[in-house]
Amino acid sequence: MIRTVLIRGKISTDGRLLALDKSVMDQFCHNNPNATVTMEIVVHPESQGNSRLNKYYHVGVVPAFREAYKNSGEWLTDGETDKRLCIESPMAHIEVDGKIKGYKQFEDLSLKEGVEMIEHLKQWGAENFDIYIPEPKNYYEKDKIQWHDK
């Protein structure tokens, strides 16, 4: 069975990979000893999207929905959850002749589309999963990620 893990990070000015949550990668490796792995690293140019909004989406919104799906009986990875949220959000739809032909990744949305998507998801999550996603200020302090205590 193929298992996947999605870990977001940043490449430092000296070329080192800085993972946002290295413990996820460590746990994944611990749970799959002696496994063969393939790693794909996708570099997103800094000009795309808004880095603070991206952090809020990936550290606040996606994990809240992953937990909501888990509570409803579906165990999804962050990547699978992200894909579901893009499918749910009209802002991420790629439409041709009025038909959905694909979905944009959150990082590829404009700032306006990203804000609209998050607001849409917060409302949808409250209505369908009875979840509350706190405002971004609960996730940041001096522009560094802080995990929100539940």
Can you put this structure into words, describing what you see?
- By secondary structure, the chain is of the alpha+beta class.
- The protein has one domain (9-145).
- Helices cover 40% and strands 13% of the residues.
- The protein contains 4 helices and 6 strands, in the order E-E-H-H-H-E-E-H-E-E.
- The protein has helices at 22-31, 51-71, 78-88, 111-128; strands at residues 9-11, 17-19, 93-96, 99-103, 140-141, 144-145.
- The strands form 3 sheets. It has a two-stranded antiparallel ribbon with strand order 1-2. The chain has a two-stranded antiparallel sheet with strand order 3-4. Strands 5-6 form a two-stranded antiparallel ribbon.
- Strand 1 and strand 2 form a beta hairpin.
- Helix 2 packs across helix 3 and helix 2 (51-71) runs parallel beside helix 4.
The beta-strand count equals: 6
Structural domain count: 1
Strand content: 5-15%
Shape designation? globular
Count of helices? 4
Helix-strand pattern, N to C? EEHHHEEHEE
Radius of gyration (Å): 16 Å
The residue ranges in which pLDDT falls below 50 over 5 or more consecutive positions are 140-150
The average pLDDT is 80
Structural class: alpha+beta
Q: Let me know the largest β-sheet.
A: 2 strands, antiparallel
Fraction of residues in helix: 40-55%
What strand order characterises the main sheet?
1-2
Distance between the termini: 32 Å
